[in-house]
Amino acid sequence: MNEAIKEKIQQWLRATPVARGVLVRGIRFADETFFSDVEAWDFPTPALEQTWRITADAFQVLQAQRLPPTRLTWVHEKTAFHCAQRTDGVTLGVFVSRNGDADTMAVERMLAEFLQLPVS
Question: How many CB atoms lie within 10 A of CB 96?
């Protein structure tokens, strides 16, 4: 992936306000590099990279089964992991607290904006 495009996507993420309840968010590029702009001790970088790798695999498997997703959500006991994948293979993932005070509408808007983000 072109480094200029990667930088534009990273700049977009940095400029996007962190919604209430977001614990960590990050981008996995098609070349398997990873970028996160929220530091969280509960989510060390290797664990985040593994989560995004598994997410990319899930998108790939669904594509192969002719069930092309653009969004996936995993719900855990204390968090929900929302992710979206663009047609160029770039994936945005957001861990959100499930303690009841998360701004889920802001997370939904961010995911929708990510999918429409022009980066050419």
Answer: 23
What's the CA gap between 104 and 120, in Å, rounded? Answer: 29
pLDDT tens for residues 42-76? Answer: 777 777 778 888 888 998 899 899 988 889 999 98
Domains and CATH numbers, the chain: 3-116 (3.30.450.30)
Rounded to an integer, what distance in angstroms lies between the CA atom of residue 92 and that of residue 90? 7
Asked whether the beta carbons of 27 and 7 are under 8 A apart, the reply is: no
d(CA 54, CA 72): 12
Please state, rounded to an integer, the average pLDDT across all residues of the chain: 88
- The amino acid present at 74, given as its one-letter code, is W
In what side-by-side order are the strands of the sheet with 71-75? 34-36, 22-28, 91-97, 79-85, 71-75
